[in-house]
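May I ask for a sample protein chain and its fold as tokens?
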Amino acid sequence: MTIQRSSDASPARILTRRTVLAGTAGAALVAAAGGATAGAVQIGEPPSGKAYVVFFRKAEYAGGAISYIVREGKAELGRLSAGSYFIATVDPGLHTYTVHAERHSDMQLIVEAGETYYVRYELDVGVILYQPTLEPSEQRLFDEASPKLHLSDPLPPTGASTAGPTP
């Protein structure tokens, strides 16, 4: 697994599988020792031949009223508001996830079947607005935050109207 994050305002950065999984393995050891965070959301195993990517955003005051949509290409995967998470079920291979504001943040992730990956949403300061950034994360950080998180509402299907019925 290789993770690459780029932004039109910062150079690309690549993390190796060992870097990301070291934190995940540490969290698994803590959980096995009975040190799992009380009330943490249990993700479970992905379907056969698939992987999970868990996107989460802590409940923070900075930019709390603004939500952002995470996309892969033109497909809208989910919305992250303050204190929310959602889980994308994906095929193995290379995936590029994006969030947009004044600038955009892209993160590339090569996933393997049967694995669960964690992506943390962060806010940076922009010229006018807060700027969304996707960062690789680990299960331990999700477990710490998850008792205060809620599952994001599903997005309406592409092309569906969000307006109420017309008279």
